[in-house]
Design a protein that fits this description.
With 356 residues, the chain is an all-alpha fold. Helix content is 88%, strand content 0%.
Length: 356
């Protein structure tokens, strides 16, 4: 009993010491900030390149398994991937810049139209109970604040991308060499891992890939299709800024449950500055897109690869949104899946140690 108390006391002491170390570490930010900026400049292209390599490698292996030489498989997938992205940037950036400029120039006019629309709704609901009316006003106010903050963050992000344009330009080269030397990278990782952890590390990575890999690839493909369909639909019905809204709908669609609502809000607000009929059209488009995703694309492409209860996913999304906003919502599901795999492996390892 005494030994057990000593062990628990030791664990608590180590935990407190670790937390104190982390606190002191962040208090000394001004000292290690230059090293952090250098590391970030190096790691960002490397991590993005590694992520793209992770997405493309299974496709290359599948093409290679059909009899196409590996080098040719790499070149085909590589040039298709970056060729399509390059073409999309070449054709899309001028349109996106023009729409952003037009949105910025017409923002006061759009704001006035939106205000008139909100006031008309307020007048129509003025006879409703006071509590309901106040809740509607609060909802519109929070939506406006969220949209203003989102636009500001997007503009700042676009400015930040131009700051890193040279670093991002080396990503295609990193991806090519990572794909080409994928087996050598695996061997290097094998030898760098301590011998006693190798088997466990391999199984851990396999479990993460099995739980998360198909979900990420499928979800990104679904987001691309939904964003493309949204752009075409909005453009066809003459909705303003279809490319901006299509991008927002496609990007936010990666967030389970809440994503479609977040992506729909800017589209509905833009439509509200045009007419009530346009608002109805946009709502129908959003509903149709969600029907296509939920009943066709989702089950067909993504499936049920997560094997997690919806309540757990929702709690993870709420926590991610509270911690890091939109980015936290996007990363919440992958992080919770990795944490689940880590927990399962930690429990399994603990059982093995107790048996020995």
């Amino acid at each position: 009993m005494r030994d057990r108390h000593i062990k628990w006391l030791l664990r608590i002491s180590i935990t407190l010491l670790g937390l104190l170390t982390i606190y002191v570490f962040f208090k000394l930010y001004s000292i290690w900030e230059p090293f952090y900026l250098i590391a970030k400049a190096i790691l960002i292209p490397f991590l993005i390149g590694a992520f793209i390599t992770y997405l493309l490698h299974p496709v290359i292996e599948k093409l290679h398994s059909t009899g196409v030489p590996r080098t040719i498989s790499i070149l085909i997938i590589y040039f298709l991937f970056f060729g399509l992205i390059g073409y999309g940037i070449y054709r899309g950036i001028p349109v996106l810049v023009n729409q952003l400029r037009d949105l910025s120039e017409n923002f006061p006019k759009l704001s006035m139209s939106y205000t008139n629309w909100v006031e008309s709704i307020h007048d129509q609901t003025d006879r409703w109970p006071v509590g309901v009316n106040e809740r509607i006003d609060t909802m519109f106010q929070k939506t406006e604040e969220w949209l203003a903050l989102t636009i500001e963050n997007v503009i700042n992000s676009l400015k930040g991308i131009f700051d890193y344009i040279l670093l991002l330009a080396i990503i295609p080269f990193l991806v090519f060499y990572m794909l080409k030397d994928f087996d050598q990278l695996k061997k290097a990782g094998w030898y760098l891992t301590p011998r006693k952890w190798r088997n466990e590390a391999i199984q851990f990575l396999k479990d993460i890939d099995h739980s998360l890999g198909n979900y990420i690839r499928g979800q990104l493909f679904v987001c691309f299709i939904i964003g493309l369909l949204a752009f075409v639909s909005l453009w066809f019905f003459g909705i303003k800024y279809p490319l901006i809204l299509g991008l927002l709908i496609g990007i936010t669609n990666i967030i389970p449950y809440f994503g479609p609502i977040i992506g729909a809000i800017p589209a509905v607000i833009i439509a509200a500055t045009m007419s009530t009929k346009t608002v109805i059209i946009v709502i129908i488009i959003i509903m149709a897109l969600q029907f296509i995703e939920g009943n066709i694309l989702g089950p067909l492409v993504v499936g049920k690869s997560l094997h997690m209860h919806p309540i757990i996913i929702m709690l993870a999304l709420l926590a991610g949104g509270e911690i890091a906003g939109i980015l936290g919502l996007m990363l919440a599901v992958p992080i919770i899946v990795i944490l689940r795999v880590m927990l399962v492996h930690a429990v399994s390892l603990r059982r093995q140690q107790s048996q020995h």
